[in-house]
Amino acid sequence: MKIKNNEDVIALTDNHVARTYGRFPIALDRGKGAEVWDRSGNHYIDFVSGLAVNNLGHCHPAIVKAIQEQAGRLLHVSNLYHIEQQSQLASELTRLSFADKFFFCNSGTEANESAFKLARKYFFDRSETGRKEIITFDRSFHGRTIASLSATAQKKFHVGFAPLLTGFKYVPFNDILALEKAMGPKTCAVMVEPVQGEGGVNMPDKGYFKAMKKLCQKSGALLIFDEVQTGFGRTGKLFAYENFGVKPDIITFAKALGGGLAIGAMGATNKVMKSFVPGTHAATFGGNPLACSAGLASLKVISKKRFLEDVKKKGDYFMQKLNQLAKRHSSITEVRGIGLMLAVQLNRPGAGIVNECMRNGVLVNCIQSDILRFLPPLTATKKQIDLVVKAVDLAFIEIFGESD
User: Fold this and answer.
1) Is there a contact between 102 and 90 (Cβ–Cβ < 8 Å)?
2) Would residue 141 show up in a list of annotated catalytic residues for this protein?
3) What sections of 197-304 are H helices per DSSP?
4) Whether residue 225 lies in the annotated active site
5) Given a cut of 90, is residue 403 above it in pLDDT?
């Protein structure tokens, strides 16, 4: 079939691809920075960034060059052998984070699965075999495979997949007393997103994570930070935990790590990671030369102090613009977030806003039915932020009939 436009791609998708996604009626064809074009030639400013994957935007020159050079040398060899690019990426990640060693996989859900296994194996090795329970939080999201789905405390994702795995307990987010009450001799780990992404860009209360860390230290439980969405500059720091003055015992990454290529990682201290020995865990494609080369190129750009400082400035600017927007529209009840991970809480469904913005050349995201989420490339300009805010402003007037 010869592809001419969006409609041709949509027809092909409808006929041959499993319908696991509610897709918008466009087929993106090419991109540069924060801009994309669809198969019919329409232009958009992309403030979804592949759901926080394209932190350096589309087709960043450093990442494209790294992929092109590596693709001509070696794509995959398996972890039966030492992989230079994997070792280099692990070395950089350990230099920049609290972790001493990393395990590589292919996605966020795989990274979280490996964290569950490591936490339980750690206590098994200490002959504390009764400590198998992992505590997570209401409105959390940790992935779609059965274990990470079982850890996800949002019932809408559970429908149709019972029985879920046992060994997970849910408590309210930002309620330290509820966490303290839930912890006990069976608790092996507490797993939390520093900022809840799919749950609504929910922010922690001041001092919440420090209190959580103290509870974990007191009970001997491990603290796991799921930074699949928040990692690699999204919050204005290289890793989100740096914003809160707390270091976890285990951390998980994916999304932006590969600059657009699929790769996940789980890191931990030596004390904990020593429980992973040959035969305990594996991933055939994990840490392959191509993905790790892209990761190295991406990390080299994002980890620069000046780059991260610029992200924070643009995040503050975007937040200011959204707060100004909230003053003009009664349907906005709250603006929240950190860095370039921002959300606008509505008092009504927001799907119409997303569709109207798309018709006017701007891509934004609606989650939980009433929350507009903004995940722009970290390279987006203030001019592009202004254009997006203007498009959202006009969409509120068109869809909700709101104006000054």
Assistant:
1) yes
2) yes
3) 208-219, 270-273, 289-302
4) no
5) no
Q: What is the pTM of this model?
A: 0.97
How many whole angstroms separate alpha carbon 56 and alpha carbon 62? Answer: 10
Q: Which residue has the tokens 């801009």?
A: 35
What are the structure tokens assigned to 174, written together?
Answer: 């930002």
Burial 55-85 (b: 16+ CB within 10 A, else e): bbbbbbeebeebbeebeeeeeeeebeeebeb
One-letter amino acid at 293 equals S
Smallest CA-to-CA distance from 249 within 228, 233, 271 is with 271
Give the 3-state secondary structure percentages of the chain, helix then strand then coil, rounded to 5.
40, 20, 40
Q: Which domains are seen in the chain, by residue range?
A: 6-60+305-400 (3.90.1150.10), 74-302 (3.40.640.10)
Residue 401's nearest CA partner among 369, 356, 359 is 356
Give the Cα separation of 115 and 184 in Å (integer).
20
- Beta-sheet pairing, 187-192 with 222-226: parallel
Query: pLDDT tens digits, residue range 263-283?
Result: 999 999 999 999 999 999 999
- Nearest CA-CA partner of 336 in 203, 164, 237: 203
With beta carbons less than 8 A apart as the criterion, state whether 315 and 339 touch. yes
Residue of 237, 255, 314, 321 with catalytic role = 255
For residue 178, give both structure tokens: 């509820």
Q: Measure Cα distances from 167 to 10, 98, 136, 145 in Å.
A: 41, 27, 11, 15
Helix or strand holding residue 307 (H, E): helix 305-328
Peptide bond into 163 cis (omega under 30): yes
pLDDT at 246 over 70: yes
**What are the tens digits of pLDDT across the range 70-93?**
999 999 999 999 999 999 999 999
Q: Which amino acid is at 73?
A: R
Rounded to 10 degrees, the C-alpha dihedral 381/300/291/33 comes to 10
CA 231/CA 251 separation, integer angstroms? 10
Give the span between the Cα atoms of 368 and 346, in whole angstroms. 10
Instruction: Return the pLDDT at 404.
Output: 58
Tokens, residue 260: 């657009």
Given the residues 103, 104, 123, 141, the one annotated as active site: 141
Burial class (CB in 10 A: 0-12, 13-18, 19+), 404: exposed
Is the model's pLDDT at 1 over the cut of 90? no
Tell me, yes or no, if 226 is annotated catalytic.
yes
Q: Choosing from 47, 102, 173, 226, which is the catalytic residue?
A: 226
Write the single-letter amino acid at 339: G
